[in-house]
Amino acid sequence: MGGLLMSKVVVIGGGWAGCAAAISARKLGAEVKLLERTDMLLGTGLVGGIMRNNGRFTATEEMIAMGATELFEVCDLNSLHTDIEFFGHKHASFYNVSVVEGKVRSLLHKMGIKTIFNMRGKAVTKRGNKIISVSLDDGTEINGDTYVDATGTAGPMNNCKTLGNGCVMCIYRCPTFGGRISISEKAGVSEYFTQREDGTNGAFSGSCKIVKESLAVDIQEKLEQAGLCIIPVTPELQKENVLSMKACQQYARKEYQENIVLINCGHAKMMSPYYPLSVLRMVPGFESARYADPLAGGVGNSIRLSQIAEIEPTMLAKGVENLFCAGEKAGPFVGHTEAIVTGTLAGFNGVKLSEKEKLLTFPTSLAVGEGISYTLNEGKSEGKKCTFSGSSLFENLQEKNLYTTEKDKIVQRVKKEKLDNVFNHKIMMT
Ligand SMILES: Cc1cc2nc3c(=O)[nH]c(=O)nc-3n(C[C@H](O)[C@H](O)[C@H](O)COP(=O)(O)OP(=O)(O)OC[C@H]3O[C@@H](n4cnc5c(N)ncnc54)[C@H](O)[C@@H]3O)c2cc1C
Description:
Layout: E1 8-12, H1 16-27, E2 31-35, E3 50-51, H2 55-65, H3 70-77, E4 79-86, E5 89-95, H4 100-110, E6 114-116, E7 121-127, E8 130-136, E9 141-142, E10 146-149, H5 157-163, H6 174-177, H7 183-186, E11 191-192, E12 203-204, E13 208-210, H8 217-226, E14 228-232, H9 255-258, E15 259-264, E16 268-270, H10 277-280, E17 291-293, E18 303-304, E19 308-309, E20 323-325, H11 336-354, H12 367-381, H13 391-399, H14 407-416
Parallel strand pairs: 1-2, 1-10, 2-6, 10-20
Antiparallel strand pairs: 3-5, 4-5, 7-8, 8-9, 11-19, 12-18, 13-16, 13-17, 14-15, 15-16
Bound molecules: flavin-adenine dinucleotide (FAD).
């Protein structure tokens, strides 16, 4: 830890990336303020839930070996099912989306992280290339030494209208809390979009949540017991040509078109692309099905992966001296694990920068380092959506022998890079 004066870190956006950034900065002794535009933390993580599948297992264990344990522990402790295998995915666990936010909120509170809800970062004041304050919806100004933009890429409503099928009332709740505002853009950082195969900007969020109780009893029972239920769909009801539109390319496989794959994350998470309600209700067992998220899930889902900031592998935004980015804001990184990995690094480096110490870059001998490097290079230049759990990044990790589930091997790998416990700084819990 540095001198007597605490570093001040302001994190904008309370999704998994922002929570991870706040925790790693706080563990280095910083005074941390976390701004969140809605009344809940976790952003799109309020409806996801899949962890530890494929290369996410390796990334998770590397982070744990480095001492970034807290958020992974919350997910593990609140998992409804573990070690699940389904099309293209191994050893997945599903956290319960209904309880996890409360657990994370109480953890942040105990760690002494100041959270400010119902408030967006709206504009920045700069001196030269440095941000000196962020102003909020109500005009209040917040000052920090360093800032982390973890505002994600979902919405706002105008993107869903122009690039998607309109507002479908998703968990992002733009009509209530106002749309996402990019702090990087306000600070003058250059931004880019991913593109779909037809050249349209952004990607559709791919999965929807169904109210479990609206499904046939045998489906409900299977979900509760096994965590998973696969229902074949007749060819005439299958949705074609929608798989490449999705943000989560690990599910762009024909099995997700030929079947309805449901998993139990609290709600029944439907891994297949959205179905019009009238079509969905023709599938046996779905006669009374209702969408829980988005509420109009039969029409579409949120648009994501727009306004991604140009950053360095340390997570520092290009062109601004004291702004870091994390999660989807920092690259086409899709997933909770990816958000926690990049958020942890951003918060850590935020403190290192204000203490004038060397910034950390994960080496490419680790899955997390290769993941960041791949995403910022190939992911960005080829418009790929990147995740440790599938698609081209996971193939790349396998080719480089970086994917493993052997925990001892992972610990040794981290030790070899002298990064064991690098994030493990104890703080007083209230
Ligand atoms: C339907 C769906 C299902 C998914 N399922 C999974 C899954 O099972 N497993 C998985 O790993 N990933 C899943 N994902 C992807 C995953 O949720 C995201 O990639 C990841 O959680 C992104 O985290 P983030 O913190 O970068 O962004 P977000 O989750 O988007 O969080 C950004 C936060 O910033 C806030 N914000 C925005 N602008 C401002 C501002 N100006 N001021 C203050 N706050 C602001 C937002 O309100 C939000 O809370 C899913 C995504 C969706 C949409």
